[in-house]
What we know:
mainly alpha, 3 domains, two-stranded antiparallel sheet
Amino acid sequence: MERSNNNLIERYVYDVARRLPEKDREDVKKELRANIYDMLPEGASDDAVKKVLYELGSPVSLAEKYRTHPRYLISPAYFDEYVAALKWILPLVGVLVMLIGFAVGAFDAAKATVENLPLIISGIISKGVSMGVSAAFQALVWTTIGFVIAEHGGAKKKVGEHGWRIEDLPEAQNAKAGIPLSEGIAELVLSVIFSVFAILFCTGRLPFAMMFSQGGVVFYNIFSQSFLDILVPFILVSLLLAVVQAAAKIKDRRWSVLVCATIVTKKLVDMAITLYLINQPNILSAEFRGFLTDAGLLQVLPNINGTNVLIIVFSMLIILGAIAETIKTIKLTVQAHVK
C-alpha cells in the first residue's frame, strides 16, 4: 500500500482516538487500524481508502460509538486533560492566594485595636481561607470555560456529501510534537489570576508587608510606591504576551513555529523588563532600606561600578535562563518537525 494511503489511515485513526479517554486510545487505535486494513484489498488506491473511510463515517460519530459513557459538558476527548489541569491549578492557586490572605489578615489585624488574641488569629485564618477558596473557585470556573471553548470552538463544520471531508483530518501528532491542552489553559488561567493580584498589590488594593521584631512588632512596606507605579504597565505587557502564548498553545497543541515564536518573544521581553526593573534605583521603600541599613545587610555585599554585586549576579542568571529557555524551545520545535 502506498505511503499516502497509510497517511490517510493514520490521520483518520488519530482523529478518532484523540476524542476518547486516554486509557482507551491505544486499544482503539489497534482495533480500528486492523479493521480498516481488513476492509481494503492488497495495493489499495487512494480512492479505495477514501471509500472505506467514508463508509466508517466521520471520526466524531465513530468515536461516539466507541465510548462506553455518555458525553458531558467536557467530553472524554478532553476530560483527562481537564482533570489533570484541575489537579494542579486548583491547589496551586488556592494555597498561594490563601497565604496572601493570611498576610492581608495579619496586616489588617496589626492596624486594628483588637487585643483579643483568639479573635485576631481567627480573623487571619478566616481571611486566608476565604480568599483561597474564592480564588480556587474562580480558577475552576475559568479552566472549565477554557476547555468548553477549546472543545466546541474547535469543531469543524460539516461539509461535503458525507457530512465531513477526509481533507479536514488533522495530521497525526507524535509524542515530541504534542502539547497537552491542559498546559495552555493552565497558563492562561494562572497568568490572568496572578496578574490581577499583582496589579491589586501595586495599586494598594491588596496591602502586603513584611513583619520584623525591632523592640516590638513593626511593619515595613518592601517596595516604594514609585516603583510599584511603573510596575503596572509592565505587568499588563507580560500578561498580554502570556495570553497570546497560551492561545497559540491551545490553538495548535503542538510545537509549531507560531508557538515557538510566542514563547521566545515572551521570554526575551520578560528578560528585558526584569533587567530594567531590578536596576531601578528606587525599588525599596525608604523604611525598608533603613531597616536593612540598620541591620548591616546592605554593607555585606560590595558594589561594582556603583551596582550591587547581588544585582549583577541576578542579572546574569536572568540572561542565562532566558537564553537556555529559548534554545530549549527552538530545539523542541525542530525535533517536532523532524520526520
